[in-house]
Amino acid sequence: DTRNRYETEIGTFVNAVDPDTFSFTEFPEWMRQFAEGIKDERDGKRSSLELVSVPSIANPPKAVAMFCTGGIRCEKSTSFVLSRKLFPEDVPIYHLEGGILAYLANVPEEESMWRGECFVFD
Asked: Cβ contacts of residue 13 below 8 Å, gap of 6+?
């Protein structure tokens, strides 16, 4: 989830990782530390990360899928992750095309993995 705390508090996808950020400007550093923590765990090292909101990952991801409200932040975050090569080459990086709004418009409610409301800003 590339969105901010006030957005994630009212709704998110099942099993999404919440970065617990106040601003999108915090997201790149959070993601860098998150990816570093996964690499440390893959290599059997104890992570020395100090950012409290970075969760421990027992099983490294087979893929990373990012999402946001309308698509812009997830495109930016995908570009950031790919340009910095934060994850191993065997971990594909995706983002939700058109964001949550497109997902909610196209996926029937009974099949949806979304829980809660979606904060839409002007």
From this structure: 1, 67, 113, 114, 115
One-letter amino acid of 21: T
Q: In the structure encoding, which two tokens stand for residue 81, read together? A: 């992750």
Q: What is the pLDDT of residues 25-43, one digit of tens each?
A: 999 999 998 888 776 555 5
pTM score: 0.80
Q: Which residues are catalytic?
A: 68
Alpha helices, DSSP H only, in the chain? 5-8, 27-42, 72-84, 99-106
Q: Residue ranges of the alpha helices (H) in 18-98? A: 27-42, 72-84
**Cβ-proximal residues to 9 (8 Å cutoff; 6+ apart), any chain:** none
